[in-house]
Design goal:
mainly beta; 4-stranded antiparallel sheet
Length: 110
Amino acid sequence: MGDPELYQQFKGHRDAITSVHFCPHKKRVVSSSMDQTIMMWNFTSDSKAYRYTGHTDAVYDVQFSRTSHLVASASRDKTIRLWVTDMKGESSEVRGHMAPVRSVQFSPDN
């Protein structure tokens, strides 16, 4: 086994990346950042990256659902957002936390 090699580099966040999650079914990856955004990339070289905005503070965690139709994100703005994984980047906001939300995870049977 040889030394590891760089497969692909993704650029787009404007601050530190806080979490990365690989899609369970498709060749995609999603990341969260201190820049208040999440970004999603396809592994094909001709695909563009999608930047999803909506949080008002740093995003700490991100995760694909089991079916990969949704992405959940957790933020220092005390909210969770559920994003539809398409070009529009529409989301639903879950409020109620009294402190920053540090992580998210989907149920295995979602």
